[in-house]
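== Protein entry: sequence and backbone fold ==
=== Local backbone shapes as whole numbers ===
==== Amino acids and backbone structure tokens ====
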Amino acid sequence: MTSPKLNLPENYLKWLDEIGEDAYLEFDDEEWVLAGHKELLETIEIDDDETLCIDQARLLVKIIMEATGESSTEDDEGNEIPFSRIAGWLTIGCNNEDLLCVDPADKYSVWVFYPSDGGDVEKLADSLEEFLEGVELVD
């Protein structure tokens, strides 16, 4: 079952509530700041546009497409990934300008979206569950 507002699995939202706000975690030698349950629904501003924190990939894709005229990018294995797919991703955390996202259309696979690198992406895990099994909370 998913939360109607966040479209994230209930087990993830429960885990997120249990670890508290401003959680830092490490996955595959990268550190990430997770957005808390409330923070996911906060409005943020990017280039004079506003969006919810969880929806920022959609806005950044729009900005990249307008600036470059491109309709797709590549993942770390050279596969073409349409920006229309990335626009559906939900942002759950960040590492500086890099976004930690999940793809609800692909079993909540976990991805890094690099908007400052032209929108390149890298798949970290095939599912949110797989990702959570490999994370380590950092103090």
User: Anything to note?
Assistant: The radius of gyration is 14 Å. Residues 56-68 form the longest helix (13 residues). The mean pLDDT is 92. Helices lie at 10-19, 56-68, 83-86, 128-134.
